[in-house]
Design goal:
The chain contains three helices and eight strands; from the N terminus they run βαβββαββαββ. It has a single domain, classed as Molybdopterin biosynthesis MoaE subunit (Aldehyde Oxidoreductase, domain 3). Strands 1, 2, 3, 4, 5, 6, 7 and 8 form an eight-stranded mixed beta sheet that branches. The chain is an alpha+beta fold. Helix 2 runs antiparallel to helix 3. The longest helix has 18 residues. It is elongated.
């Protein structure tokens, strides 16, 4: 598995805090924007989601994230951009998607973060199978 953008299982709060801490020495940064995706306990036909099992066409996904990331750097005045998505089983309440952008000013960090999240959700081949509390499952439909 490529660890460039993918993490097996949930994304830990320690990973997030370490990512933030590493940027304290970069004095040209004035703003950070963070998106954290968390697995919800959605209800479908009286069944409640207990977890999502994420899979991806990793080689294709990595190439597409590279392209999207480059587009963000070309469009916005960014200093840094970090992207992580879970693979495997992530329980409700756990984090599955982390996008962290940094720039000299807050507007670029915010807009780039939103761009990255939206483009990744739209273009990258990552799939989620909802696992319900009754142990049935179905492929997730993004809402």
């Amino acid at each position: 598995m490529s660890d460039k953008y993918f993490i097996q299982g949930p994304i830990s709060p320690v990973k997030i805090s370490n990512s933030i801490a590493k940027h304290q020495s970069k004095t040209n940064i004035g703003a950070h924007s963070i998106f954290l995706g968390q697995v919800r306990a959605d209800k479908t036909d009286d069944r409640t989601v207990a977890a999502i099992e994420y899979t991806a066409y990793q080689e294709m996904a990595v190439k597409e994230i590279d392209i999207i990331r480059e587009e963000a750097f070309e469009t916005f005045d960014l200093t840094c951009a970090h992207i992580y998505h879970s693979l495997g089983i992530v329980n409700t309440g756990e984090l599955c998607f982390f996008v962290f952008t940094s720039s000299a000013h807050r507007q670029a960090a915010r807009e780039a973060n939103q761009f990255l999240v939206d483009q990744i959700k739209e273009r990258v081949p990552v799939f989620g199978k909802e696992i319900f509390e009754d142990e049935t499952h179905q492929w997730k439909v993004n809402r």
